[in-house]
Amino acid sequence: MIAWAKSRKGQQFFTIVGFMIIPLTLLLIFTYFPFAEMVKFSFYKMKYTTPVDRRIFVGWQNYLDVFRRKDCFGALKLSLYYMVGAILQLFLALFLATILSFKIKGGNLFKGLMFFPYLINGIAIGFIFKFFYTRGFVFDTVLTWCGFDLNHLPYWLKDQAVNNWALVGTSVWRYLGQNMVLFIGAIMSVDAGMYEAAELDGANKFQIFRYIILPSIKTIVTLNVILSITGSLSAFEQPFVITSGANGTGTYFVIMNKIAHTSQKVGLASAMAVVLLLIIFACTILQKLFFKYIFRNADAEDESYAAKKERRKQEKERVKAARAEGKKV
After folding, report:
1. How large is the average pLDDT for residues 295-322?
2. How many CB atoms are closer than 10 A to CB 65?
3. Which of 84, 93, 238, 276 could disulfide-pair with 179, CB 3.0 to 4.6 Å?
């Protein structure tokens, strides 16, 4: 044992353990231990100040209440608004990224302007759009300039037919630039020779996007979709700051915050958090399976274009060799 500890492998083992023990300890203390406590709290009826000996064990009752209570289960339905907005945002980001990944006049300025909202604090964005949507202010003023009658315009933050879409628009405005920049970075990493090979084969722009760009950036597309969908399920800043969850805009996180900190129902709030975590896990797995099916032929397509590129390269080398031999003769 002592000889192994002094050996090269032993020294490597102790070095690795020495570097890992501190971050793993911090992760255990500040992440996994609080999570385990939250799961334990979800089986009790309690408040923050309830002594340990007075906590009432209720079993699965809190989890059943998550689906029985209209405010809890109804808040999950609001996530569909944000999911629709996230999908539209990804399509628009991918469209703009495909255009801006090539040299366009003013493209860098446009990228900076689109990415700037992501750098702003979420709370600040909430206050900006609260003023923006207020009756008679910025948005209504712009619409009146376009010929709309102010008296016929809805109250963007009170009318339940449009208020959730208004909040979704805020989220799209903030995260569109981030997704666009990620897509641009992925597209620019694609080998330009593949575009040349496709154009020589007579492919149009849409075919180049479908068979070269999209399969080549499938990893970042999958990542962005997963982040967008999970973000939709956990939307909090915009509805909390702009409307405080009023008029049917209370998302799952907003309702959970009220139950935990206003009603002091810690057990129910913990159960809501666990349910949301399970939903996010399920959505992530389903998305991975979906994209695995969508991109099932991507590797074969990549290989075919790589083979064409290699064939073109070999043809060019043969032409050069033939020309060199002709000059010698």
Report:
1. 62
2. 18
3. 93
